[in-house]
Specification:
By secondary structure, the protein is α/β, with parallel strands linked by helices. The protein has twelve helices and nine strands. The chain has a seven-stranded mixed sheet, sandwiched between helices. Helix 3 links the parallel strand 2 and strand 3. Helix 6 packs parallel to helix 8 and helix 9 crosses helix 12. The longest helix is centred in the C-terminal third of the chain and has 14 residues. The termini are far apart.
Amino acid sequence: MYNITPRPYLANPQITRAVLESHKFVLQKKYGQNFLIAPHVLENIVAAAGITEDDFVLEIGPGIGTMTQYLAANARAVTAVEIDRKLIPVLEDTLQGFHNVEVIHQDILKVDIAALARERNEGKPIKVVANLPYYITTPIIMNLLKQSVPVSGITVMVQREVTDRMQSGPGSKDYGALSLAVQYFAKPQIAAVVTPDCFMPQPKVESAVVHLARYENPPVCVEDEKLLFSLVRASFNQRRKTLVNGLKNSPELSLKKEEIESAIEAIGKPLTVRGETLTLEEFAALANVLSSNFVA
């Protein structure tokens, strides 16, 4: 006897409202809870993520299970990680009949994703899909990118300004540590812009769906990856200062001013340069000079 996966039905304001009321669920502002009620957006997310019936999908923040239903209808298996304990009984209700879904009550930053990949997908690359609240977007994305786990792609819905930061280059006010980290590990592609009326309750800002296609190898060669990101953080923590002063004042780095100046000159930049003007390639070159000459 075959298990027939139900059709997704939650992407509807009346049904979403009825589910929340039946469980007497009160929105938790600290978790940035806004539930999708637009089927076309959910279809765009599944398409952007390239979900197929062979895929194992890790979903972060399933909420009441709206996106989970769409993922389950298209993937081989889905593991959904939800931090809000009060949503677990709601998910048990809305995901009845979706036999290829497992729900874990946990903070995604504490989940061993590599172990999940081994146990659920034979260690093969997994796909990650998430609707991320603003307050936790950067830590989650950085955790996914920097972990040594087999992730082939990350498709997330975030505030529009976050996607702008991911794609920004030198000279833009949006350019920063997130821009460089994302572009080091993956190619960001905007799949859709999502207006506030696609959510319940409506947020005050636009959102966007971005797909991060993970590189097999970073686009730049770096001898010391940890040093590279220490340099990036130091540069943008004091972005209005010169690069020399930003690096010299960083508690992460133990570099003498003379060493910093020598390295900056070695990559062909003036000593008055600011970190916010350096490209990923130039940060990599700076890291390699410092790693070779001055960092033990």
